[in-house]
Amino acid sequence: MTTHICKEILVLYYSQHGSVRQMAQWICRGVDSVAGASARLRTLPPVSTVCESTAAPIPDEGAPYAELKDLEECIGLALGSPTRFGNMAAAMKYFWDGTSSLWLKGALVGKPAAVFTSSASLHGGQETTLTSMMLPLLHHGMVITGIPYSEPALIHTQTGGTPYGASHWAGAASDQALSDHERQLCTAVGKRLATIALQLAKP
Predict the structure, then answer these.
(1) 0.90 cut: is pTM over it?
(2) Angle, to 10 degrees, between the axis of helix 180-200 and the axis of helix 19-32?
């Protein structure tokens, strides 16, 4: 009897107050709901303004820190960051600045990718943050999936949600729970990404 091995989708996020982490977990649920796919959850350490400050190689809790091999080994990528003045967080930018070795050998060319974000204020630069995360992915030759308007939650949401990727309105104190529509869109992102990744990964 042959053993079926699921192909992995990397769900890579940076989260300071927990909202993006929660979104990542819902995206993982969407990925895992697709037969033949499984989610690999990874996070990033913060970037310090003090150059000699370093993070422990393994976080005390939660997902492990991402390594370049995670990008190479997975067939698709969901990338999440909080909004920082309409841009991805420094920790996420720092990580992608160190991926030149993958770019040189075309390791990510043709793989599908999705993006997601959270902001303290309604909208709050969500769409520009999502597009900022797309830029390094496009340079790597990845295929951006987005969210189609065939997803009902994208039409009816009164909080987060964009055609560029999933988003969440966390509130000024970053204590606002994900809405039903936001959770539905995160799950939809995972399902869509996994489905497309499996199609593209066929020999």
Answers:
(1) yes
(2) 50
